[in-house]
Amino acid sequence: MKFRYIKIPTKNPKRKWISRPMIPIILSAQKGIVAQSVNTDALLDSGADMCLFNAEIGEVLGLEIEKGEREPFGGIEGGRLFAFIHEVDIQVAGIDKTIKVEAGFVRGLNTSAILGQEGFFDAFRVSFERDRNVIEIKSI
Amino acid sequence: MVRYIGLRVAWKIGTIRLMKKAVGKNEIDLSKKLKSYEGQWVALSLDHKRVLGAGKTLKRAKEEAEEKSKQYTFIKLPPYDINYIPAF
User: Fold this and answer.
1) How far apart are alpha carbons B61 and B53 in whole angstroms?
2) CB-based contact (8 Å) between A81 and chain B?
C-alpha cells in the first residue's frame, strides 16, 4: 500500500512547508465488550523505540491513561518524559492486518501519533521514497 | 541514425522530467489548508480535502466534526516554528 507524504505549514519564510512521512491509521482499544477506535495520521519515526500516542487519543479510546505502567522516554537533547503503557490495536488504513502493540501515551505530545520500531516497524516493511514523496507499507 | 538516437534521447529526458514533475506533486498538501490551525487538533475528512473541526483539545475538534460527518481523521499540528527531531 502506498501513501503520500503530507505537507505541513511552517513559519520559516525560506521553507513554507515541510513534508512528513505520515500515514493514516485506525487505533483501537478494547474496553469491556466494546472496542473504541480513532482515526489519525501517524508519523513514521524509525528513530523511535516504541509507538507513542497523544494521551488525548487514549482518553477518546476510553483508556485510563495514568493507570498504565509508567515508563521513561528520552530524546537526543537529554530530557526525559514519562509515558503510560497500554495495549492497543493498530491498523494501517487499506491494509487488512491489525497488530497488537504495547504503546506509550504521553500528555502534551506535539503530534497525535508516532509509529516506532517495536510493534510497528517489526510488523511492516516500510520503504521511504522521499524523491517521489511516497511511502510504501507492506505487511510482513 | 544520429537524428533517430537524438530524438530517442530527447524523448527519454522529456519523459523523465514529466514523471518527476508528476511525482513531485504527489504529496498531500495541507500547508495552506492548515495554516491557521497551529498547535491545534484538526479533524479532516478521510480524503484530507476538508477541515471538519478544530480545537485546542481533541474533544472539541471531535464535537465539531461530528456535526458534519461520521467519518474523519485527526491530526495534531505542532508549533510551526519548530523542526521535528526524535526528541520531546
Assistant:
1) 5
2) yes
CATH code of A89's domain: 2.40.70.10
A41 with B74: Cβ contact below 8 A: yes
Q: Do A6 and B62 touch (CB under 8 A)?
A: no
Q: Is B36 an 8 Å CB contact of chain A?
A: no
Q: Tell me whether residues A9 and B34 touch, CB distance under 8 A.
A: yes
ipTM, interface predicted TM-score of the complex:
0.89
Q: Domain containing A114: what range?
A: 2-139
Q: How many domains does chain A have?
A: 1
Antiparallel, parallel or unpaired: β A113-115 and A124-129: unpaired
The DSSP output letter for B75 is E
Under 8 Å CB pairs connecting chains A and B tally to 109
Q: pLDDT per residue over B29-85, tens digit each?
A: 998 899 999 999 999 999 999 999 999 999 999 999 999 998 999 999 988 887 776
